Amino acid sequence: MQKQNAGIHHITAIVGNPQENVDFYAGVLGMRMVKKTVNFDDPGTYHLYFGDESGSPGTIITFFPWPEAYRGTIGSGQVGITTYAVPEGSMAFWEKRLGKFNIDFEKVSRFGEEYLEFQDPHGLQLELVERKEGRNSEWSFGGVPAEKAIKGFGGAVLLTSKPIKTMELLEEVMGLQKIGEEGDFIRFRSTSDIGNLIDVKKTVLPNGKIGVGTVHHIAWRASDNEEHKEWREHIGNHGYGVTPITDRQYFDAIYFREDGGILFEVATDPPGFAHDETKETMGSKLMLPPWLEEKREAMEKTLLPAVPRVLEEDK
């Protein structure tokens, strides 16, 4: 039986000033900052996580804020657009909310759905779409009530230098199902009800350049550690160079680069974000892995502010 991936676990992107990042994703979009830690590979910088009330797989967007970094270029070898699902009947609320914060948006149609496309402050391409499927978030913050809140990922648009090879990977290795073709896009579906629709752009764009305003990688789900090991063997058996399993504290991870240039990760659903904080206090303080705890004082002095706050427009 062919292995089938459930869908997106998380998406990780590079942004600029950390407080601007928090103000947008928590303050404007109303998401919960579920974890404030550091980039384990570059501990002088944050790693910030946003999602639903629990940081459920399929809702988590994570950021490396590099305030002094150069601006990247979105292009082939990247996630081009990150799609968020919102409850049915909430699009008028989101149009009004984006307008309230003077965020330009454009309405577009794709596969019979209406999208609001816009950018975050650092240039990441985002879109909102109404979806019936997927559990509603229980989180409310600022001017975003739970009944209008972002559910999690609707999916993503992939930009690839080798569309045929990328689509072969999605179908034959990751087990997604091709469900449609419209204009420049081919759509694939995974088995979950969130983070489940992937659109591949057929036109090859110039190669993207990593930097502020670009997605670093997209991560797919493994239900537990045993399935994670199976995915590593399965992907390797298809000729992809897969990294050893890495402990990321909140999930285990493996990485490989697909033929079209996009960095893929497979991450475990457990243990999640509440194992070193309570669910009630997640995201309220800087959390460090044991091997960095002795450097806490120095880090807290040098890291810039990154605090969720209700913005003036919602007071």
From TrEMBL:
<dbReference type="InterPro" id="IPR052537">
    <property type="entry name" value="Extradiol_RC_dioxygenase"/>
</dbReference>
<dbReference type="Pfam" id="PF00903">
    <property type="entry name" value="Glyoxalase"/>
</dbReference>
<keyword id="KW-0223">Dioxygenase</keyword>
<dbReference type="InterPro" id="IPR004360">
    <property type="entry name" value="Glyas_Fos-R_dOase_dom"/>
</dbReference>
<keyword id="KW-0560">Oxidoreductase</keyword>
<feature type="domain" description="VOC">
    <location>
        <begin position="7"/>
        <end position="131"/>
    </location>
</feature>
<dbReference type="GO" id="GO:0051213">
    <property type="term" value="F:dioxygenase activity"/>
</dbReference>
<dbReference type="InterPro" id="IPR029068">
    <property type="entry name" value="Glyas_Bleomycin-R_OHBP_Dase"/>
</dbReference>
<protein>
    <submittedName>
        <fullName>Ring-cleaving dioxygenase</fullName>
    </submittedName>
</protein>
<feature type="domain" description="VOC">
    <location>
        <begin position="152"/>
        <end position="269"/>
    </location>
</feature>
<dbReference type="InterPro" id="IPR037523">
    <property type="entry name" value="VOC_core"/>
</dbReference>
